[in-house]
Amino acid sequence: MGTIAFAVTGASKAIAHKADIFGIIVLATVVGVGGGVTRDVIFGRFPTAFSDPIYVGLTVAVGVVMFFLFRKLQKRMNIWLVFDAVGLGVFSILGASIAYQVVGLEFLPMLFGGMITAIGGGILRDVFVREIPIVFVKEVYAIASIIGIVIFYAMLSSGVDVQIASVIGIVAATGIRLLAMKFNWNLPKVREI
């Protein structure tokens, strides 16, 4: 569901920028699998998105569906924002877990692996359409990912089972993101003169 939700946000951004069906599919795929592919390449792994065609297949299907049904689905976009929040939590901890498997209990690789998995596709999406990545200018999104990963790391460091630590980290990141959406939380910015 996280991959699908991320692909929906990519397809929506492409549609907003008047892309054709190919552009919609490309942006859906970039957002859906871009973070995981980037993480795998950095950690010297063959990208899961290329070895298991289900991921790219899902993102292509989402792009096609969004091309034909965008106007009908547009009214239900709020539900996809919830799935996007869940995807953020899952991908944050999944990326941190992969880093943990590769390098062990090392904080910076786990933080980087989790964050690039969770927000990498969205950053690529915004760069492709020549916008400043949204995680740099508004919304509590990357911070939710960071908090979830820090909790996951702290629990592993104190001897908690990896599965329990994963669930708690996912719930924390997802919960913070959902609260941020509900209460319109944003990080502070420099005030202009």
UniProtKB/TrEMBL annotation:
Subcellular location: Cell membrane
Topological category with respect to the lipid bilayer: Multi-pass membrane protein
Main location per the UniProt record: membrane
GO cellular component, one term: plasma membrane
Keywords: Cell membrane, Membrane, Transmembrane, Transmembrane helix
Keyword Cell membrane listed: yes
InterPro entries (UniProt xref): Gly_transporter
Protein name per Swiss-Prot or TrEMBL: Glycine transporter domain-containing protein
Organism: Nitrosopumilus cobalaminigenes
Lineage: Archaea, Nitrososphaerota, Nitrososphaeria, Nitrosopumilales, Nitrosopumilaceae
